[in-house]
Amino acid sequence: MEDRKPVEPPHPAQDVTEHVGYRLKRAASALRGAMDRALREHGLTVPQYSCLELLDERPGLSNAELARGTFVTRQSMNVVLHGLQEAGLISRPATTDHGRALPAHLTEDGRGRLHAARSAVYAIERQMIDAVPPRRLAALLADLDRMAEALGD
User: Residues 77-103: pLDDT tens digits?
Assistant: First the structure.
């Protein structure tokens, strides 16, 4: 039997629920659940909504760019884009003159669906950040960015 030395936690914690990673996952899970419920009323999933948001800000993004921006694989983004195109919320050319990327654009229906869904999502975010004192919000956002950068994102 191998002798195992205890591993020191990265910060004082009584149990796993006090670790930063656990708390981040708990917050992310709560956000995802609330968004899933709200977006269901608009006929969208979280990746579809995220895709529409990105295309509203930067029309013409490719599948790969959208996958990176929505934190899904390229294969999953293919499914998302196909569903959005079938629903008439985005348009993509059948072919492209250069490269393999097919740039996606919102349709008028896509803009309308996004606008309706955005109100619901922003209400959720407002509810979430109302739990943070306003004077601490900028520091929280900066801390979250530094954590992601520390892990190579």
Answer: 999 999 999 999 999 887 766 666 778
